[in-house]
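Title: Comparing notes on inverse folding

I've been comparing how different people in this forum approach sequence design from structure. To keep things fair, I'm posting one structure and asking everyone to reply with a full sequence. Here's the target:
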């Protein structure tokens, strides 16, 4: 164990001293301290400063040192000891007529209405035996669980579970019975302290911080509670003992820790309760439950020791000079007999000590009562302040972040620590960077600024390696451009490379840093470094810029993000020729578009020019043929990723691997889910690219014929965007460095493609499979590969919809995972597009192929047109057959569409055009055949054919028999009137009258017979009308009587007898045969009821104009004539019919 002498301790003035004045009288100290000799003790608390006097009173002071609460704690006595935790104040004092010390426990948060002070919770005597002994020290845990009391006879009392006692509602006198845990009559107890520090902690280890290694004691406080122990450290005049409390041992007992002790008030617990500091005449010693932890040699008797944050405040006499040499360790570790001392320190026998006051020179005529205040940082081993108080020191307390010193003359002095920046600036001026780093660690400060100043200092001295070590510890707190600018010169490139690597390891590099690092590798041709760089993983650190046990090596752990700008790394690797590395980066981080761009545009079919192809690290992932790799990769990612990237590279892949690419597109369009292995994956030969004239189906698709492969180093969509980073200040500084390498161009951030999620990532239990892409997306890429296009369309139609030329194929549900989430309407459109394009391919290939192939392709086209289960577009097919002059297809389509007149006109045009048509029979015979086929259902075709047959003498001569048959059919079916036939035949001089003489004579004879028949009908109708009119006239004659000659009843056909009833319609009835009150002839009523019902229906239909207009559209004359007949156009009203 090392020791540090007074001469070796560095001296600083890190505290400012100022007197504290009374709030009402600025010329004097606070009123309560004017009688300083009456102050017995004062402590800091959660309620403020607590002061007790020799009269038994206790005062709580605020920051203005004004009493906010005062009460008498011990009547007729004095307060000797106080301690406060969580608002609970424990006082021990003496009272009149009581020999033993009295312990009171007060609740500072509650007020007693009778006394005006806090509520007294518990009180008890401190008397373990019948003979009382004075209390020398007091200790209380933060949780109020344990209270320890030390006595002058060497006895230590421990109160357990004090917090439970205070929370209970029992009587005030009920305090847990104490237990004697230590008793050495020859060694009075001078101090008690609870510690939680590890026994292995060492103060000396704090003074040797190797760069960024974590402080063991600083980290001990953050250790989990399960690894900490609670120990009571017992200090006597000659020894140090420890009593374990938690975890509770099976046989608890105090044990000797060290054979050194301390006097009253000459010990304290450090600020984190890790150890106890003893003030010896030779040194200040740190002791824990495991033994001595460290020694800071500071000669001279110690009057008292106190704790303020990380400092130990020592009060020493100011009359004896300090020896300049360290005290031998043997004097500290001597026998107990040689180290026994009195209970109280006799300052009159001490020699004068040379001291300084705030850095002033020594004084030789100091007051014997003068005392020196020294603040020592034991962890960092320096003196933060040393000053003389000429009137002596009554007490010292740490409160509100300051040190308050109460003098014997009643003056109160405040010692305020300087700002951390001021302290560090002072250390920087003296180049004490190690001490500054240790100080920053002790106070849990960020050490970045310390490493930065240290690095600048070493850089100015020319120690570039040392400077880089310090700069590496500033990563995350200092802009990277600040360090990069310093190391841009050629001879410092290796150091710059190390810094850039660390930036990427911490994930703090921007695009410029990545570009600069890769350019550096490229210039020196260090392929191994490039390989290690692209395969590095991001790491997660507890605190950026720290290292030690918790630090991880680069690449250790799992990272979701690359430790560098991915777009920049890929771009620079491509520009520098490291294509395999660029492909690895893109594939590793799921950048599908970048990966395909590298393997297709840069690698292609393979060959020389790829840097790093012979390196061992890259040889494992070497890409021989970029096109094959692209096809395999697209099969692997599948789904949306393949769909979004194929439009860019499909033509290039078809040009080099037509069969493999076609099979990939087929699987992509027919399988929902992960794609199977390609049957061509092990093929070593590629099918030669097929060329053909661009077919016209591209006009139907309306797709552009873009370049198959874009420029090799295109910037992508975001080429014009600026990559934003937190290191904006270094962009112009890096411009010069970036301009020197192959990756000097600015980085363009790339947006991940829409297909970043592959189909293979879908869960097996997904209810709805992902939708398959539409086959129409890939039509344009087959422009130069008609054979592959035909295979693609036929296979897709069969596997996706089960459609073939012959019949509907059965789908094998077990072979492929057919998606069910497609839109039905979209699927119908896709089917029509596929078959329309297939028809065009059949017609195109049939036109350009040889005779044997032409007949096969045209046969396929005809089979397609004849199929009733194939959903092609009739109109589109008609356009295609017309443009390719495919006669069978045209005729078939006209027949399907009911365009029979077009069929006849087509054959008529073929005959009239005098073009030799390789069809049998001749066009005119085709016309007659079509008429016989379509004529029975389409009578309008007969006049058309009649005109055609009589258009030329040759036709008339060749088809005279057909003409006569046609006329007979027209006559039998009444299709045309004789006049219309004569008009058709007389329009030219081809047909003579003799040709139709017999037909006309028959029609004239039939006409005459019809006229005669009509004349007879007219005569009969006139006679009937006259008869009806005569009857009407007779019925209206009221002057002549009517004689009834009917002798039988019209109802029962019986002989009439009286009474009988006769009607004017010549019907007579028995009165008994008629219903009562019946006034009309029953027979005539039934006959005329039908007529009346017809009239009522006609009147109702007269208001339904829509029905009338619909009949007019079908046959106008007949509808108008019928309307007149039904009375729709002039209804006057119902005419009653009576007998």
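Reply #1:
Here's my take.
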């Amino acid at each position: 164990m090392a020791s540090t002498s007074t001469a070796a301790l560095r001296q600083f003035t890190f505290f400012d001293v100022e007197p504290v004045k009374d709030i009402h009288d600025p010329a004097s100290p606070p009123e309560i301290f004017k009688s300083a000799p009456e102050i017995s003790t004062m402590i800091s608390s959660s309620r403020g400063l607590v002061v007790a006097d020799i009269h038994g009173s206790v005062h709580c002071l605020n920051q203005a040192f004004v009493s906010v609460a005062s009460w008498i704690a011990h009547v007729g006595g004095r307060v000797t000891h106080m301690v406060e935790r969580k608002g609970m104040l424990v006082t021990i004092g003496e009272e009149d007529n009581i020999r033993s010390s009295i312990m009171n426990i007060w609740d500072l948060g509650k007020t007693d209405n009778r006394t005006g002070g806090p509520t007294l919770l518990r009180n008890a005597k401190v008397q373990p035996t019948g003979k009382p002994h004075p209390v020398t020290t007091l200790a209380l845990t933060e949780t109020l669980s344990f209270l320890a009391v030390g006595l002058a006879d060497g006895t230590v009392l421990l109160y357990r579970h004090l917090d439970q006692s205070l929370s209970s509602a029992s009587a005030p006198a009920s305090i847990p019975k104490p237990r004697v845990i230590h008793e050495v009559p020859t060694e009075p107890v001078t101090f008690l302290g609870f510690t939680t520090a590890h026994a292995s902690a060492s103060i000396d280890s704090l003074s040797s911080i190797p760069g960024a290694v974590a402080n063991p004691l600083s980290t001990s406080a953050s250790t989990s509670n399960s690894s900490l122990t609670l120990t009571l450290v017992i200090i006597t005049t000659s020894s140090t003992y420890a009593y374990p409390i938690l975890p509770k041992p099976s046989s608890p007992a105090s044990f000797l820790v060290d054979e050194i002790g301390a006097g009253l008030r000459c010990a304290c617990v450090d600020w984190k309760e890790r150890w106890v500091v003893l003030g010896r005449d030779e040194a200040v010693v740190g002791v824990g439950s495991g033994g001595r932890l460290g020694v800071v040699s500071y000669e001279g008797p110690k009057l008292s020791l106190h704790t303020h944050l990380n400092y130990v405040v020592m009060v020493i006499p100011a009359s004896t000079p300090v020896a300049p040499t360290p005290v031998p360790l043997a004097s500290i570790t001597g026998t107990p007999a040689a180290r026994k001392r009195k209970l109280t320190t006799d300052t009159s026998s001490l020699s004068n000590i040379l001291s300084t006051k705030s850095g002033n020179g020594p004084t030789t005529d100091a007051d014997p009562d003068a005392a020196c205040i020294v603040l020592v940082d034991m962890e960092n081993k320096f003196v933060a302040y040393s000053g003389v108080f000429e009137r002596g020191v009554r007490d010292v307390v740490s409160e509100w972040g300051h040190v308050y010193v109460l003098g014997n003359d009643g003056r109160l002095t405040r010692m305020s620590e300087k700002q951390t920046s001021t302290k560090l600036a002072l250390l920087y001026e003296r180049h004490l960077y190690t001490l500054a780093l240790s100080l920053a660690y002790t106070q849990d400060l960020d050490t970045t600024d310390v490493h930065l100043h240290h690095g600048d200092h070493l850089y100015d001295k020319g120690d570039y390696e040392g400077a880089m070590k310090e700069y590496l510890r500033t990563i995350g707190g200092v802009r990277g451009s600040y360090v990069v600018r310093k190391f841009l010169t050629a001879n410092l490139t290796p150091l710059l490379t190390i810094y850039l690597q660390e930036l990427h390891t911490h994930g703090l590099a921007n695009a410029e840093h990545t570009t600069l690092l890769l350019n550096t590798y490229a210039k020196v041709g260090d392929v191994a470094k490039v390989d290690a760089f692209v395969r590095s993983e991001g790491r997660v650190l507890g605190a950026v810029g720290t290292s030690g046990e918790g630090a991880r090596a680069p690449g250790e752990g799992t990272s979701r993000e690359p430790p560098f700008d991915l777009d920049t790394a890929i771009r620079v690797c491509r520009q520098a020729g490291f294509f395999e590395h660029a492909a690895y980066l893109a594939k590793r981080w799921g950048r599908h578009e970048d990966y395909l761009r590298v393997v297709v545009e840069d690698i292609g079919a393979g060959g020389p020019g790829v840097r790093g192809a012979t390196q061992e690290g890259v040889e494992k992932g070497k890409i021989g043929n970029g096109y094959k790799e692209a096809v395999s990769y697209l099969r692997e990612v599948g789904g949306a990723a393949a769909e979004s990237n194929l439009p860019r590279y499909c033509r290039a892949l078809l040009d080099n691997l037509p069969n493999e690419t076609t099979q990939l597109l087929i699987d992509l369009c027919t399988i929902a889910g992960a794609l199977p292995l390609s049957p061509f994956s092990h093929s070593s030969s590629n099918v030669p690219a097929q060329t053909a004239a661009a077919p016209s189906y591209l006009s139907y698709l309306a797709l552009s014929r873009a370049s198959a492969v874009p420029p090799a180093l295109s910037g992508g969509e975001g080429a014009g965007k600026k990559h934003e980073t937190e290191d904006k200040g270094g962009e112009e500084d890096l411009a010069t460095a970036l301009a020197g390498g192959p990756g000097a161009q600015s980085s363009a951030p790339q947006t991940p493609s829409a297909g970043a999620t592959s189909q293979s990532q879908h869960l097996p239990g997904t209810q709805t499979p992902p939708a398959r892409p539409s086959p129409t997306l890939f039509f344009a890429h087959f422009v130069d590969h008609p054979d592959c296009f035909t295979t693609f369309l036929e296979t897709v139609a069969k596997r996706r919809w089960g459609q073939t030329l012959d019949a509907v194929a059965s789908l094998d549900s077990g072979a492929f995972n057919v998606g069910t989430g497609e839109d039905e309407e979209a699927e119908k459109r896709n089917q029509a597009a596929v078959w329309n394009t297939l028809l065009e391919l059949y017609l195109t290939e049939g036109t350009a192929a040889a005779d044997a192939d032409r007949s096969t392709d045209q046969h396929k086209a005809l089979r397609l047109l004849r199929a009733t289960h194939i959903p092609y577009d009739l109109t589109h097919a008609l356009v295609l057959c017309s443009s390719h002059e495919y006669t069978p297809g045209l005729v078939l389509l006209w027949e399907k569409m009911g365009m029979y007149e077009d069929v006849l006109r087509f054959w008529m045009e073929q005959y009239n055009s005098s073009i030799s048509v390789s069809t049998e029979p001749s066009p005119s015979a085709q016309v007659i055949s079509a008429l016989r086929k379509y004529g029975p259902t389409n009578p309008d075709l007969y006049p058309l054919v009649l005109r055609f047959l009589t258009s030329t003498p040759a036709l008339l001569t060749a088809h005279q028999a057909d003409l006569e048959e046609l006329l007979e059919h027209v006559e039998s079916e009444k299709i045309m009137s004789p006049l219309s036939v004569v008009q058709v035949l007389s329009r030219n001089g081809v047909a003579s009258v003799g040709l139709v003489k017999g037909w006309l004579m028959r029609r004239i004879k039939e006409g005459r017979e019809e006229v005669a028949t009509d004349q007879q009908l007219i005569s009969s109708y006139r006679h009937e009308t006259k008869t009806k009119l005569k009857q009407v006239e007779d019925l209206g004659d009221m002057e002549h009587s009517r004689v009834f000659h009917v002798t039988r009843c019209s109802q029962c056909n019986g002989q009439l007898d009286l009474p009988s009833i006769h009607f004017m319609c010549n019907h007579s009835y028995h009165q008994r045969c008629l219903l009562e009150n019946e006034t009309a002839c029953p027979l005539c009523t039934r006959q005329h009821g039908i007529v009346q019902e017809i009239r009522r229906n006609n009147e109702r239909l007269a208001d339904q104009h829509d029905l009338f207009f619909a009949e007019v559209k079908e046959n106008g004359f007949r509808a108008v004539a019928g309307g007149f007949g039904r009375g729709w156009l002039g209804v006057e009203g119902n005419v009653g019919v009576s007998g």
